[in-house]
């Protein structure tokens, strides 16, 4: 089935790595490892986008026009019910109806994974919303986005409700001292340090607040996990050439499997001006990191 879906399987050390063009094809290897371990499983995803659209959003829109909201809900329910992660044919059939930003909640709805922890350029505020933030917004009766930028957000630590998807804000909320030679925190600088220890420590500190039962502030997990990487996470050559990457290497070593979406068009659209990068070159550099992590 992997071959039919144009998914390449590579083995480096004893780590199985799956490579494919479009991100929603990750469902096939995710389902495969779920069958093998048959226990709680989470995904750690590094991505430019959050990929948290509703399951079959595009398909349902195109196939339920003018039929009403109830018909749309019924169609989504039937499509999800048709997926049995123990039967790869049903997973493949679902993939043919999905878009590349609909797979996270599809995987959760079908019990392939239990939770997702997403580090994304696109996320500018905590998700789920902290209880402190929700209270302040309720008191001010203010639009969340306007409130966020006008008055800032509650100082840490915060508490959070139960959720299945957790996303820390992309930009650091406070200066973390000079990060590996970067003395300012412009968007360009942040985009260059997405694999650096300080950047990832910042994200895992917040994820630990969000879901302490599963993730520590050091980036270790109490349950088994998949490391999922979309190559459009990397906007520059510097972004995939970190000076300090022990956190990332530990994520590689301890992952059950690694899935990599090339998303070649997105890589080209999102790369910084004058950067000579493409998904092929990024993939080779990522393989180099995986080899180094697994050799040490």
Report the β-strand fraction as a percent range: 5-15%
Strand order of the largest sheet: 1-2-7-6-3-4-5
Helical fraction equals: 25-40%
Order of helices and strands: EEHEHHHHEHHEHHEHEHH
Q: Classify the secondary structure makeup into a structural class.
A: alpha/beta
Average predicted confidence as pLDDT? 89
Count the strands?
A: 7
Uncertain runs are: 146-152, 175-184
Specify the biggest β-sheet.
7 strands, mixed
> DSSP helix count?
12
- Overall, the morphology is globular
C-alpha end-to-end distance: 33 Å
Question: Rounded to an integer, what's the Rg over CA atoms?
Answer: 19 Å
Write up this protein.
Helix content is 40%, strand content 13%. By secondary structure, it is of the alpha/beta class. It has a domain of 192 residues. It has a 7-stranded mixed β-sheet with strand order 1-2-7-6-3-4-5, sandwiched between helices. Helix 1 packs antiparallel against helix 4. It starts with 7 loop residues before the first strand and ends with a helix.
Strands, helices and their partners?
Layout: E1 8-12, E2 15-20, H1 27-37, E3 41-47, H2 57-63, H3 69-81, H4 88-95, H5 103-109, E4 115-120, H6 131-140, H7 144-151, E5 165-166, H8 187-192, H9 197-210, E6 224-230, H10 246-254, E7 257-261, H11 264-270, H12 279-295
Parallel strand pairs: 2-7, 3-4, 3-6, 4-5, 6-7
Antiparallel strand pairs: 1-2
Helix pairs in contact: 1-4, 10-12
Q: What would the keywords be for this entry?
A:
single chain, 296 residues, alpha/beta, 12 helices, 7 strands, globular
């Amino acid at each position: 089935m992997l071959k039919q879906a144009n998914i390449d399987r590579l083995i480096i050390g004893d780590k199985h790595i799956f490579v494919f063009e479009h991100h929603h094809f990750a469902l096939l290897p995710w389902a495969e490892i779920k069958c093998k371990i048959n226990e709680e499983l989470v995904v750690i995803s590094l991505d430019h986008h959050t990929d948290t659209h509703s399951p079959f959003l595009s398909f349902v829109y195109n196939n339920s026009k003018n039929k009403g909201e109830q018909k749309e809900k019924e169609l989504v329910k039937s499509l999800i019910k048709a997926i049995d992660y123990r039967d790869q044919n049903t997973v493949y059939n679902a993939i043919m109806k999905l878009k590349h930003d609909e797979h996270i909640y599809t995987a959760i709805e079908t019990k392939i994974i239990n939770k997702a922890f997403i580090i994304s350029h696109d996320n500018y505020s905590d998700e789920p919303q902290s209880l402190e933030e929700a209270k302040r917004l309720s008191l001010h009766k203010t639009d969340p986005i306007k409130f966020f930028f006008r008055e800032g957000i509650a100082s840490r630590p915060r508490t959070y409700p139960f959720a299945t998807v957790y996303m820390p804000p992309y930009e650091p909320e406070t200066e973390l001292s000079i990060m590996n030679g970067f003395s300012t925190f412009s968007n360009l600088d942040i985009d260059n340090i997405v694999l650096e220890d300080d950047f990832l420590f910042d994200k895992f500190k917040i994820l630990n607040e969000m879901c302490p039962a599963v993730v520590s502030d050091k980036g270790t997990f109490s349950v088994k996990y998949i490391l999922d990487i979309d190559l459009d996470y990397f906007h520059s050559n510097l972004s995939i050439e970190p000076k300090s990457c022990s956190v990332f290497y530990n994520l590689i070593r301890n992952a059950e499997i690694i899935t990599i979406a090339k998303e070649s068009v997105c890589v080209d659209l999102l790369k910084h001006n004058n950067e000579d990068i493409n998904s092929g070159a990024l993939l080779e550099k990522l393989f180099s990191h995986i080899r180094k992590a697994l050799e040490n």
